[in-house]
C-alpha cells in the first residue's frame, strides 16, 4: 500500500524490476570463509547504497570494539558503486581508520587504462592460487584517485575480454538490424512505396539513429553513419568500424581497475581481496532462493515485523553457514542448498497397527541419498534422535 507509513518498505530502485512493489534494503557483512554473516541491517528501500555504506562502517567499528575491547585492523572491500570520495574520507577518518580495496571506473583513472597491454606483467601467484589467476596480467602504479594518492592495479583477463567481445558482436548485429530497418523505410519512401506517417526530417532521423546507438554500450563508438538528402528525400548510410572495435579491445575490454591504500599488498593479494566480494553476492543469491532460506516475499507491513522477519532469515542463514563450515572440517564438501535438499530427504515414519483403540507403534528412520547418509553417520543422528 503506497499510503502505508512504514519507514523500511519504500519505493526505490529494484534490481528485480518489481517497481510495482515496495522494497526493503538489506545490508550484509560476511566473512571470507563460508560467507558467515557477522553484521546485518534492514534499511529503507529508497536509501542509496553509498549512504548505507557509511552507516554500516560505523556500526562495524562499534560492534568490533564492544566485542573485542579494541579497534580492528580491517580492510574493507567494495565495488565501484561505493567508491565515492566521502566514503573514502570516512574510512580514513580518525574515528574508523579502516583500510580498503575497491574498484574504479575508467573515467576515474583514465591514465591507467591508457597503459598499453604490452607493458603488463604476468601476475605472480602463490603455489596454492586458483588456476584462473594464471592467465592474468597486471600493471601497477601510484595515481590520484578520488582526491588522494593510492596504489592502483589494472588487471587484464583474456577470458573476460572473450565474454565481453561476444556480447559486443551480438549487440553489433542487433544494432545493424535496427539501422537497416530505418534505412529500408527511407528507401521505400523515396520510391513511393511508403506514404503513411509523417515525412521524415533530418532531425527526426538523426534522433532515431542516436537513440539506437546509445541503447547498447560501445555502439556509438563503433558505428559511423551519415544522413544524405537527394531529390528531396533522405537516405541513411552506416557502417561498423573494425578499427574502432580494435581500439576498444586494446583500451577497455578484459580490464578491471582496482585501488587500495595498502601499498604493502601484492597484486595477487589486491585482486584476490577484490574478488572475495563474491561471498556477499553468493549470500544474497542464497537468501533469495525460493526453496530454502528465502527472505522474500515479506508478508508484513510494520517496521517491527519486517525487521524481525529479516532477522530470522539472516539468523537461519548464519546457522546454515556455520554448519557448512563444520561439515567442511569433517571432510564433507557441499553447498547450503545441497545439504538442505539432501537432509530433507530423510524421513521418520511411524506405523500404527493392531487394535484401533490401543494400536501398537513401529518407528522407522528412512535415510536419503549418499550425502545425507554421510551427514547422518557423522553426527549419529539416528542414534541420537530415534535410537
- Rg over alpha carbons: 29 Å
Strand content: 15-25%
Low-confidence stretches: none
Helix content: 40-55%
Total strands: 12
Task: Please trace the helix and strand order, writing H or E for each element.
Answer: EEHEHEHEEEHHHEEHEHHHHEEHH
The 3D shape can be described as extended
Strand order of the largest sheet: 3-4-10-7-6-5
**What's the pLDDT, averaged over the residues?**
88
Query: What is the makeup of the main sheet?
Result: 6 strands, mixed
Helical segment count: 13
What would you call the structural class?
alpha+beta
Distance between the terminal alpha carbons, to the nearest Å? 52 Å
What does this structure look like?
The chain has 387 residues and is an alpha+beta fold. It is extended, with a radius of gyration of 29 Å. Helix 4 packs antiparallel against helix 5. It contains 13 helices and 12 strands. A 6-stranded mixed sheet has the order 3-4-10-7-6-5, sandwiched between helices. Strands 1-2 form a two-stranded antiparallel ribbon. Strands 8-9 form a two-stranded antiparallel sheet.
Key terms:
387 residues; alpha+beta; six-stranded mixed beta sheet; two-stranded antiparallel sheet; 13 helices; 12 strands; 21% strand
Question: How would you sum up this structure in a few lines?
Answer:
This protein is α+β, with helices and mostly antiparallel strands. It has 13 helices and twelve strands.
Layout of helices and strands:
Elements: E1 24-30, E2 37-44, H1 49-68, E3 75-78, H2 85-92, E4 99-104, H3 110-113, E5 121-122, E6 137-145, E7 148-156, H4 158-190, H5 202-215, H6 219-222, E8 223-230, E9 233-240, H7 242-251, E10 255-260, H8 267-275, H9 278-287, H10 303-329, H11 336-343, E11 347-353, E12 360-366, H12 370-379, H13 381-386
Parallel strand pairs: 3-4
Antiparallel strand pairs: 1-2, 4-10, 5-6, 6-7, 7-10, 8-9, 11-12
Helix pairs in contact: 4-5
Amino acid at each position: 500500500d503506497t499510503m502505508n507509513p512504514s519507514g523500511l518498505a519504500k519505493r526505490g530502485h529494484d534490481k528485480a524490476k518489481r517497481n510495482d512493489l515496495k522494497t526493503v534494503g538489506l545490508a550484509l557483512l560476511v566473512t571470507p570463509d563460508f560467507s558467515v554473516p557477522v553484521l546485518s541491517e534492514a534499511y529503507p528501500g529508497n536509501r542509496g547504497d553509498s549512504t548505507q555504506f557509511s552507516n554500516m562502517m560505523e556500526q562495524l567499528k562499534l560492534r568490533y570494539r564492544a566485542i573485542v575491547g579494541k579497534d580492528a585492523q580491517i580492510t574493507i572491500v567494495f565495488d565501484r558503486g561505493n567508491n565515492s570520495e566521502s566514503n573514502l574520507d570516512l574510512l580514513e577518518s580518525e574515528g574508523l581508520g579502516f583500510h580498503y580495496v575497491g574498484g574504479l571506473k575508467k573515467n576515474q583513472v583514465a591514465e591507467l587504462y591508457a597503459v598499453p597491454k604490452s607493458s603488463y606483467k604476468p601476475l605472480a601467484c602463490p603455489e596454492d592460487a586458483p588456476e584462473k589467476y594464471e592467465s592474468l596480467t597486471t600493471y601497477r602504479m601510484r595515481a590520484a584517485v578520488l582526491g588522494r594518492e593510492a596504489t592502483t592495479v589494472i588487471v587484464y583477463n583474456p577470458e573476460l575480454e572473450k565474454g565481453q567481445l561476444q556480447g559486443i558482436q551480438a549487440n553489433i548485429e542487433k544494432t545493424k538490424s535496427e539501422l537497416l530497418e530505418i534505412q529500408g523505410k527511407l528507401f521505400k519512401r523515396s520510391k513511393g512505396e511508403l506514404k503513411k506517417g509523417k515525412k521524415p526530417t533530418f532531425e527526426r532521423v538523426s534522433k532515431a539513429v542516436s537513440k539506437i546507438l546509445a541503447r547498447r554500450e560501445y555502439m556509438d563508438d563503433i558505428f559511423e553513419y551519415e544522413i544524405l538528402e537527394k531529390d528531396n528525400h533522405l537516405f541513411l548510410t552506416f557502417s561498423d568500424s573494425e578499427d574502432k572495435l580494435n581500439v576498444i579491445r586494446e583500451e577497455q575490454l578484459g580490464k578491471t581497475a582496482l585501488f587500495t591504500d595498502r601499498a604493502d599488498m601484492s597484486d595477487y593479494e589486491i585482486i584476490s581481496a577484490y574478488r572475495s566480494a563474491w561471498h556477499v553476492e553468493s549470500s544474497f543469491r542464497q537468501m533469495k532462493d525460493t526453496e530454502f532460506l528465502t527472505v522474500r516475499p515479506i508478508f508484513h507491513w510494520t517496521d517491527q515485523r519486517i525487521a524481525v522477519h529479516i532477522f530470522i532469515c539472516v539468523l537461519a542463514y548464519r546457522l546454515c553457514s556455520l554448519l557448512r563450515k563444520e561439515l567442511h572440517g569433517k571432510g564433507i564438501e557441499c553447498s547450503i542448498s545441497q545439504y538442505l535438499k539432501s537432509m530433507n530427504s530423510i524421513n521418520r515414519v511411524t506405523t500404527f497397527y493392531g487394535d484401533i483403540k490401543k494400536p501398537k507403534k513401529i518407528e522407522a528412520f528412512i535415510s536419503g541419498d549418499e550425502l545425507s547418509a554421510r551427514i547422518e553417520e557423522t553426527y549419529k543422528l539416528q542414534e541420537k534422535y530415534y535410537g
